[in-house]
Specification:
The protein is α+β, with helices and mostly antiparallel strands. It is built from 12 helices and 5 strands.
C-alpha cells in the first residue's frame, strides 16, 4: 500500500489533481442536471490517473488505461463544452502520454483527441470551435514537450548513474587485483632475496661452528638459533602474502547498486567464498547488475536478495527479488547476454519463477 501511495503522489500527479479540482469548480454551473455524471467522470479520471503508475505495469494494460482516460476526458468535455476549461483535462492527458511514449505516437493521439474536441464543440454550437481547439493545442504542445524533455533528462541521469556505478564497481575489482599482484610481487622478492641470503648466512654459521677454535661458542649458537627463527618467520610472512584472499565482491556489488533507488540490494556472501579470477568476478558482477535492472523495470521490486555460496569447486549464486513477474517468463536480450557471459567464464544459468511469482536466478561459476 505504501508503494502505491508513493507512486501516486508524484509532483506531476499532484499538479494534475489541483488542476482537475479547478476544472471541477469552473464547470459546476454548466453541468446542471448532468452534475452527478460529470462528477463521476471527473472522479474516475482523477483516480485512474493517480493509480496509473502503480497498477499499469504491463504495456497493453497501460495503453488500455490511457484509452479509458481519453474517453473519460472527452465525456467531461461533452457535458461542459461551453465553459472553456473542460479541455484542460486533455492537456493533462497529453503531458502524461509524453512521459511514457515517443513523440510520434503522442502526435497521432493528440491529432485524434483534438479532432474529437472540435466535433464536440461544434456539436454544442460553440461560437469559435476552431479557435478554441487551436488555443488548447498550443497548451497541449507546451505541456507535452516539457514532459518529454523532463523524462529524457531523467533517463539520461539514470543512465549516467548506472555507468558511474559500473565504473566504481570495476575500479573496486581492479584495485583488488592490483593489491593481490603487489602482494605476490613482495612475497616473491622476500622469498628470492631475503630467503636466499638467510640460507647463505645459516650455512656460513654452520661452517664456523665446525671450526675447532669456535666449537661450542655461546654467541655462535645464539646466532644460528636466531637465523633459524628468522627463516621460519620469513616463510610464514611469505605464505600469508601469497594467500589468495580473493576479490572484494561485497564492495563492488554495493557500489553497483548504490545509485538505484530501488530495489535495495541485500547481499549474503559466505565466509569461504574466494574469487581470484577477474573474468569470473566480472561475470558475477554483470549478472547482479542485470538482475537489478530487471527487478526495477519489470518486477516493481523493492528488494533484491543475492546469496553467494561455495559448493566444492563451484561458486553458487542465488538471486531473487520481492516483486512479481508482469508477464510469462521470457528470456530477452539482457538475460540472454547474462547466460552468454556466464558460459564464457565457465558457468551456467537457470531461470525460474519463485513460489510468490518473482524472477529467480540460479547460477554456478568456477571457484
Amino acid at each position: 500500500m505504501r508503494g502505491y501511495l508513493q507512486a501516486a503522489l508524484q509532483p506531476l500527479n499532484l499538479a494534475a489533481l489541483l488542476t482537475l479540482g479547478t476544472v471541477a469548480l469552473s464547470i459546476h454551473g454548466e453541468l446542471g442536471d448532468a452534475r452527478p455524471l460529470g462528477w463521476t467522470l471527473l472522479a474516475a479520471f482523477s483516480l485512474l490517473f493517480l493509480l496509473l503508475e502503480p497498477i499499469a505495469a504491463r504495456p497493453w494494460l497501460r495503453a488500455a488505461c490511457y484509452g479509458v482516460l481519453a474517453l473519460l476526458a472527452l465525456g467531461v468535455v461533452a457535458l461542459a463544452p461551453r465553459t472553456g476549461t473542460s479541455p484542460v483535462i486533455l492537456v493533462i492527458l497529453l503531458a502524461a502520454l509524453a512521459m511514457d511514449y515517443p513523440p510520434g505516437r503522442v502526435l497521432l493521439v493528440a491529432a485524434a483527441l483534438n479532432i474529437a474536441l472540435y466535433l464536440l464543440l461544434a456539436a454544442a454550437s460553440h461560437p469559435a470551435p476552431g479557435l478554441k481547439v487551436t488555443l488548447y493545442l498550443g497548451f497541449q504542445a507546451f505541456a507535452a514537450l516539457v514532459a518529454h524533455y523532463a523524462r529524457s533528462a531523467e533517463r539520461a541521469r539514470d543512465r549516467l548513474a548506472l555507468v558511474n556505478a559500473d565504473l566504481l564497481a570495476t575500479r573496486a575489482l581492479l584495485a583488488d587485483s592490483a593489491r593481490d599482484a603487489e602482494r605476490l610481487r613482495v612475497a616473491r622478492e622476500l622469498h628470492d632475496v631475503a630467503g636466499h641470503k638467510l640460507t647463505a648466512l645459516t650455512l656460513n654459521l654452520r661452517a664456523l661452528a665446525a671450526e675447532p677454535g669456535l666449537a661450542g661458542h655461546a654467541g655462535l649458537d645464539v646466532a644460528r638459533q636466531l637465523a633459524g627463527e628468522l627463516m621460519g618467520d620469513l616463510r610464514q610472512v611469505v605464505q600469508q602474502l601469497r594467500e589468495d584472499r580473493g576479490l572484494d565482491l561485497a564492495t563492488a556489488l554495493h557500489a553497483l547498486a548504490a545509485p538505484m533507488p530501488r530495489p535495495a540490494l541485500r547481499l549474503d556472501i559466505a565466509d569461504d567464498v574466494r574469487i581470484g579470477d577477474p573474468q569470473v568476478a566480472e561475470a558475477l558482477l554483470r549478472m547482479v547488475q542485470e538482475a537489478l535492472t530487471n527487478s526495477a523495470r519489470h518486477g516493481q521490486a523493492r528488494h533484491l536478495d543475492v546469496a553467494i555460496r561455495r559448493e566444492g569447486s563451484r561458486i553458487v549464486v542465488c538471486i531473487e527479488d520481492d516483486g512479481r513477474l508482469q508477464a510469462p517468463l521470457r528470456e530477452g536480450n539482457g538475460l540472454a547476454g547474462m547466460r552468454e557471459r556466464l558460459a564464457e567464464a565457465g558457468g551456467s544459468l537457470a531461470l525460474s519463477a519463485s513460489p510468490r511469482g518473482a524472477l529467480k536466478i540460479d547460477a554456478s561459476l568456477p571457484a
